[in-house]
């Protein structure tokens, strides 16, 4: 009490005003974060929670809903179309990883060599399909794949000396639909992933190559002992994002197959099946169950990939 | 001095310059919005259609309706066929941006009638239709797809009888008399002369979709669903249709007379016709309008004939496609909307121009006497195609809708593809049993989907 009594008025008032000034400063971060948090709560967290609840209902739009517990998930297990969608998606994801990524890396290695002329032009050329967007690419390849008149068919019929008929139905024959989708996505994404690999290759310490050369390593040994370990974090990132992207495939086959899933559901993907159920059949509950099953599957696959590639150890 | 005071203001502003910038931008954008409010809706009625030919014909005749109803303004909007059902569903669900009147394609219609009657987004037109005697004035069967539990939610736009378009020049060159094709057996006999696999086919019929299969199914009196909403895609008629259809499209079949390209519409099909890849096309009235528009080079070289009958003296047509017009519950002026619907769909002042623009026969029987439907058409080798379609209109089979119609069609396509594959490998051996089991298996999948959802 004494000290309070003896404190000069000017000092007290200066501390009080400093405290007043500091109070808003303490709240400042929260204030700046609040718009994002608010938007996330409304457009992120609420739909996530709502969809989880919806997945326990059979619905007819938002007006009619009947609680069915886990019946939607149980039905998924026996749903032939969902099985087809999962199989198609896995096939696409498999080829995306095991065809697309090696091609991307091969192109990156090629363009990283000094003897290739016009490297900048080729980088742009290989990357540019990605600038178009899946819908545009879908429309373009629908025309290219046309039987009888499409350039793609004309070309392969000419190359094969007529062995492959010019009226080959890439988008109508169930056996050819998935290859057609994969070829289209290769054209679109090989250049995109190449850019990641190229950036990673350019960041590899050149001293390591010199040391390997001194040790007598040939170019193949250099690739496996120096290049691959050095670009591993980027390769893991590309692997995970390419896989997750493949599992969410929707627009490309949807446009290629004329807003449908193709003959015998040959182009039906999990997200397309979700869309069909939610927005065409009107069963938002079943669509939510499909969405949550996909999300759970993606989480498991990502964890397995990160574990197998040892990315967490590398980061540690 | 002013510069110093400005920098002092910025630096002393609570939370610094970033916060000041955000505040200024917020105020500025708020002011811009305040002084530039979105234009108020000026139209009395909003009308969505998905078909460009419909849109083109309505644009011409709507001024007449607006003249007859002073102060009324109709906002006609063309929405893409693929986007319209989703946009309308979203509008119904959110109760936002709902049009007053909307045209729906027949295959999407069923999805709008799910759930309890009171939750259907369209107004019940049953009383209005009865009051105006439209069930007698129009082809009554065309109301069936838009009816749920006795309540009619849509006015039919069309009848869509199906005929065969044939390349008259090619027929003359090959010495084929179209009048000699009375039954499908005749068609196959002639088709074998025309067909050269991978080069030329008698007709366009797909083996990986249901368009032409559906036409054949309807011609035989079959359907995907019956009038009571029961799934019928695997009944005896469907089995017989499949057994008839598959040999026509299966590679290597002795009766293969049909092939297909990637699309049944636009430049692809026109090119197929011009190159004589196809001699015949299944052509409902709406498709003749499309061909006239897209295939100018074929003017005077094409003609139409009735579909071959299944048996001598049998039905010479079928049906493909359809459109309904509904008035939404959201519409504030239902009476005016009904007036507009009747003007566009029934008024004899509007129908002649609509026919000239689209070639679509209206379901309004008394209008069929109008001279426009009996004019010769130079594009169609001077045939009176209106007259020919009208002659078949009464034979058009009924078709019924369901929320699961797309699922049923998809599963029928799966069955068709499997049956074609089987036939290509085994021919007639065990084909009947395979068709039956395949159709039943696919139909059971649809039944499981239906049983799961009480709506």
Order of helices and strands of chain B: HHEHEHEHHHEEEEHHEHHEHEHEEHHHHH
Number of strands of chain A: 2
CATH hierarchy, class of the largest domain in chain A: Mainly Alpha
Q: In CATH terms, what is the architecture of the largest domain in chain B? A: 3-Layer(aba) Sandwich
Shape of chain B: globular
Helix fraction of chain A, binned, reads over 70%
Total domain count of chain B: 2
Describe this structure in words.
- The complex is a heterodimer of chains A (316) and B (455).
- With 316 residues, chain A is mostly helical.
- Chain A folds into two domains: 2-54, no CATH class; 73-315, MetI-like fold.
- In chain A, 74% of the residues lie in helices and 3% in strands.
- In chain A, strands 1-2 form a two-stranded antiparallel ribbon.
- In chain A, helix 13 packs antiparallel against helix 14 (284-309).
- The longest helix of chain A is centred in the first third of the chain and has 46 residues, at 9-54.
- Chain A is globular.
- The two termini of chain A are 55 Å apart.
- Chain B is globular, with a radius of gyration of 27 Å.
- In chain B, helix 11 (236-249) packs across helix 17 and helix 17 (405-426) runs antiparallel to helix 18.
- Chain B has two domains: 45-156 and 321-349, D-Maltodextrin-Binding Protein, domain 2 (3-Layer(aba) Sandwich), CATH 3.40.190; 162-319 and 398-451, Periplasmic binding protein-like II (D-Maltodextrin-Binding Protein, domain 2), CATH 3.40.190.
- Chain B has 455 residues and is an alpha/beta fold.
- The chains are: A mainly alpha (316), B alpha/beta (455).
- Chain A binds chain B through residues 24-25, 28, 31-32, 58-64, 66, 71, 75, 78, 80-81, 142, 145-150, 165-167, 169, 171-174, 258-259, 261, 263-265, 279-283, 286, and chain B through 14-15, 19, 82, 85-86, 89, 92-93, 111, 114-116, 119, 198, 206-209, 259-263, 268, 271-272, 275, 277, 403-404, 406-407, 410, 413-414, 417-418, 445, 448, 452-455.
């Amino acid at each position: 009490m004494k000290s309070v009594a003896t404190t000069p008025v000017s000092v007290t008032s200066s501390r009080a005003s400093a405290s007043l000034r500091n109070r808003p400063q303490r709240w400042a971060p929260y204030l700046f974060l609040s718009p994002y948090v608010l938007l996330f709560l409304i457009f992120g967290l609420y739909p996530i929670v709502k969809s989880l609840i919806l997945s326990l209902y059979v619905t007819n739009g938002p007006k009619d809903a009947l609680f069915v517990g886990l019946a939607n998930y149980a039905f998924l297990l026996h749903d032939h179309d969902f099985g087809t969608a999962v199989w198609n998606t896995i096939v696409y994801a498999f080829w995306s990883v095991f065809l697309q990524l090696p091609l991307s890396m091969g192109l990156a290695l090629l363009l990283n060599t000094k003897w290739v002329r016009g490297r900048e032009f080729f980088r742009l050329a290989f990357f540019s399909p990605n600038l178009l967007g899946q819908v545009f690419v879908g429309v373009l390849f629908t025309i290219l794949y046309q039987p009888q008149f499409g350039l793609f068919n004309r070309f392969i019929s000419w190359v094969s000396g007529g062995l492959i008929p010019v009226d080959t139905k890439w988008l109508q024959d169930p056996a050819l639909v998935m290859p057609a989708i994969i070829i289209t996505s290769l054209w679109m994404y090989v250049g995109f992933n190449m850019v990641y690999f190229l950036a990673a290759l350019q960041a590899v310490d050149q001293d390591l190559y010199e040391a390997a050369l001194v040790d007598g390593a040939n170019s193949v040994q250099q690739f496996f002992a120096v290049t691959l370990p050095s670009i591993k974090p980027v390769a893991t990132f590309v692997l995970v994002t390419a896989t997750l992207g493949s599992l969410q495939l929707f627009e490309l086959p949807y446009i290629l197959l004329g807003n449908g899933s193709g003959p015998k559901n040959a182009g039906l993907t999990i997200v397309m099946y979700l869309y069909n159920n939610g927005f065409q059949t009107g069963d938002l509950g079943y669509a939510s169950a499909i969405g949550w099953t996909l999300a759970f599957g993606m989480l498991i696959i990502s964890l397995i990939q990160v574990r197998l590639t040892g990315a967490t150890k590398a980061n540690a | 001095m002013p510069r110093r005071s400005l920098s002092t203001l910025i630096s002393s502003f609570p939370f610094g310059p970033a916060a000041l910038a955000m505040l200024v931008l917020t105020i500025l954008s708020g002011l811009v919005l305040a002084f530039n409010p979105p234009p108020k809706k000026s139209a009395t009625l909003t009308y969505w259609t998905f078909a460009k030919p419909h849109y083109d014909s309505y644009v011409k005749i709507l001024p007449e309706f607006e003249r007859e109803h002073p102060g009324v303004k109709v906002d006609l909007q063309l929405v893409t066929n693929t986007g319209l059902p989703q946009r309308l569903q979203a509008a119904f669900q959110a109760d936002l941006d709902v049009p007053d009147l909307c045209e729906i394609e027949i295959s999407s219609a069923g999805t709008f009638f799910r759930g309890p009657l009171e939750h259907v987004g369209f107004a019940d037109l049953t009383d209005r239709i009865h009051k105006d005697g439209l069930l007698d004035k129009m082809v009554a069967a065309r109301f069936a797809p838009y009816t749920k539990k006795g309540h009619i939610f849509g006015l039919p736009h069309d009848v869509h009888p199906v005929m065969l378009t044939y390349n008259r020049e090619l027929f003359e060159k090959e010495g084929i008399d179209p009048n000699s094709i009375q039954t499908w057996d005749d068609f196959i006999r002639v088709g074998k002369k025309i067909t050269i696999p991978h080069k030329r086919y008698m007709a366009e019929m797909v083996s990986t979709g249901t368009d032409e299969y559906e036409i054949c199914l309807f011609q035989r009196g079959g359907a995907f669903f019956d009038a009571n909403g029961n799934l019928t895609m695997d009944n005896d008629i469907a089995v017989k249709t499949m057994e008839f259809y598959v040999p026509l499209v299966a590679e290597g079949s002795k009766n293969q007379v049909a092939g297909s390209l990637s699309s049944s519409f636009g430049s692809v099909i026109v090119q197929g016709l011009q190159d004589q890849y196809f001699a015949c096309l299944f052509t409902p009235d709406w498709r003749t309008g499309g061909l006239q528009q897209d295939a100018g080079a074929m003017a005077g070289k094409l003609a139409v004939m009735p579909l071959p009958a299944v048996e001598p003296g049998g039905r010479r047509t079928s049906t493909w496609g359809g459109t309904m017009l509904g008035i939404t519950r959201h519409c504030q002026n239902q009476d005016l909307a009904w007036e507009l619907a009747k003007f566009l769909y029934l008024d004899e002042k509007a129908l002649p121009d609509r026919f000239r623009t689209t070639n679509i026969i209206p379901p309004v029987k008394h209008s069929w006497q109008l001279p426009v439907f009996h004019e010769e058409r130079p594009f169609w080798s001077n045939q009176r195609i209106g007259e020919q379609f009208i002659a078949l209109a009464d034979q058009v089979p009924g078709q019924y809708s369901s929320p699961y119609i797309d699922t049923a069609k998809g599963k029928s396509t799966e069955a068709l593809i499997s049956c074609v594959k089987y036939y290509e490998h085994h021919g007639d051996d065990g084909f009947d049993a395979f068709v039956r089991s395949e159709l039943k298996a696919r139909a059971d999948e649809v039944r499981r989907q239906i049983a799961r959802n009480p709506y």
